[in-house]
Amino acid sequence: MSRVGKKPIQVVSGVSVTLRDQQVTVKGPKGELSASVHPEITVEMKENTVQLSRMVHGVTQGYQRKLELVGVGYRAEMKGSKLQLQLGFSHPILFQAPKGIKIETPSQTAITVSGIDKQLVGMVAAKIRSFRPPEPYKGKGVKYEGEYIRRKAGKAAAGAKT
Q1: Where are the strands (E) in the chain, listed by range?
Q2: Which of 5-19, 46-60, 95-109 is least confident?
Q3: Domain 63-144: which topology?
Q4: pLDDT at site 158
Q5: Fold match, 4-60 / 63-144
Q6: Alpha-carbon gap, residue 143 to 140, rounded angstroms
């Protein structure tokens, strides 16, 4: 089991942490996060240290996930506040980002999802990826940046073995 969660985290200047009953609220320059803590877990604030690393990191620096589109004719662009995806279907896919999430398209084949809540950023990136997950034969689809797609041999390669 990881012991990273037990280490105290320094609260930097510009960030305020409020502990009220089992509710923890962290405010910073990028926004505010709150979470309820299980009753069996005790959260203590001593001087400028607290054990909420993900929340403190989120309100100071934020989180982001990058996606890549692989395939002929696959492209993404922002239409107002909605993300429009062309993924080989007969129709474009329009995706509205939830509150607190910012989606950018630096190029037609790249998407950046950013926000202060790590869980929400990951869920939105996974939802966009689920529209056309990468397939193992040609590698086409929406994938995370740096993700390795294990390729399979097709029917022609299977018949050539005999």
Answers
A1: 9-10, 16-20, 23-28, 31-36, 49-50, 63-70, 75-79, 82-86, 93-96, 101-107, 110-115, 141-144
A2: 46-60
A3: Outer Surface Protein A; domain 3 (3.90.930)
A4: 56
A5: yes
A6: 9
